[in-house]
Amino acid sequence: MFLEADGIVPDDLGPLGVFKFRDPSLNLDSVVVVDTAPHGVAAGGVRMLGDVTVKEVAQLARVMSYKFATFDIPIGGAKAGVLLDPRDGRRRAALRSFGRSAASLLKTGLYVPGEDMGTNAEDLAQIYDAAGVKDFSPSPLATKVVDGLPLEDQFTGFGVAVSARTALELAGMELNGAKVAVEGYGKVGRGVVRAIHRMGAKVVAVSTVEGTLYSPDGLDVQKLESMRREYGDSLVLHYGLPPLRREDLYSLDVDVLVPGARMHVIDGARLRSVRAKVIVEAANEPLTEEAEELAFRRGILVVPDLVANAGGVLSEVMARAVGVNDESAIFKFLEQTISSKVRDSLSVGRPPRLALIEEARRKLLTPTSVTDPVRELERRFGK
Predict the structure, then answer these.
(1) pTM of the predicted model, to two decimals?
(2) Which among 252, 262, 186, 246 is positioned nearest to 215, based on CA atoms?
(3) Separation between Cα atoms, residue 184 and residue 363, nearest integer Å
(4) Which residue of 42, 102, 202, 207 sits 20 to 30 Å from the alpha carbon of 258, by its own alpha carbon?
(5) 327, exposed or middle or buried, with CB in 10 Å at 0-12, 13-18, 19+?
(6) Exposed, middle or buried by CB within 10 Å (0-12, 13-18, 19+), for 213?
(7) Mean pLDDT over residues 319-336, rounded?
(8) Active-site annotation holds for 332
(9) How many whole angstroms from its chain centre is CA 178?
């Protein structure tokens, strides 16, 4: 069960509601945090981890509020947490239990779940089915797998790669040949590595919970993908190189560092050892506020999570709300939209994430004239 005190401090934005559920038959705890819902609709992923906390879920729900506002998407932010190791044999039963518990939220549309750490499109189908929402059907792209990798993960990874390329250009460098280290070679990390490698970068390091793989000459990306399928997180123990510690990844001599796992893994002390010229936040809020400010003072370009990892969210908006299911059109849209937002966010003359949050809060606290969010999405994103 959730052992920590919630640690949630409400403010002028939210959260709108914190909904905790317990299933004694499975010894299972889960939670949904709806942070904002300006039109009665909020969205965010379902995170299934053995150590997820209510506080973390609430923080992630706030990130979703800011992310939607950053791109002027008229949807509120939310997040769910299921306190279970995704490798646990109770996984399917836990997903269905969560669906039954959260049924009223799903049926009213107050909470629209998505994929997150530990969950995928098939899991969402189980959740909706258990909730009794029979008309749920994921977009055709949500369940499509291309070259062994879910397309949604590729959209997210592509957005991170575009962010890295744009930031390097602003720094007078090129992505082609740049040395890149990626934390978290899992759901999002695989998409990042594939996309950034195809753009010509040299992936010299990846990490999992088991440690870090590092080769200054570059890792074999095809071998990484193959070994990930065979060994999961333990691939770092079988690749053929002596693994480093997980935390060693942050201080490697690279051009681009991509933190892609949990929140606040880089604080001020750790930031002082970072040698990268560019940090691209593939995870949600991986740097503390102190680290964001220190990076700015050191001249390290940090592409905020609110922009860098928005590829999955934007692709789902395009596919599910607007009805665009041409993957090439979505890749083109992501390239244009994310590149433009990266340039804007890195030209404000202060820590970019803090500036984006300030602007997002202003938008969220300003009364809106939007009455039909679906039509507004169609108008903005061009159906």
Answers:
(1) 0.92
(2) 252
(3) 32
(4) 42
(5) middle
(6) buried
(7) 88
(8) no
(9) 23
Spatial contact of 72 and 100, defined as CB atoms under 8 Å apart: no
Burial of 328 (0-12, 13-18, 19+ CB in 10 A): exposed
**Which member of 20, 55, 67, 79 is catalytic?**
79
Residue 65: the pLDDT is 97
Q: Report how far residue 226's alpha carbon sits from residue 214's, in angstroms, rounded to the nearest whole number.
A: 17
Q: Does residue 4 register a pLDDT over 50?
A: no
Written as six digits, the tokens of 47 are 């995170």
DSSP state for residue 244 in the 8-state scheme: B
Could you tell me the residue ranges of all domains in the chain? 17-131, 149-356
* 169 CB burial (10 A radius; 0-12, 13-18, 19+): middle
The answer to whether residues 22 and 54 touch, using CB atoms and an 8 Å cutoff, is no
CATH 3.40.50.720, applies to 149-356: yes
Mean pLDDT of the chain, nearest integer: 93
Residue 343's pLDDT is: 97
Statement: 17-131 belongs to CATH 3.40.50.300: no
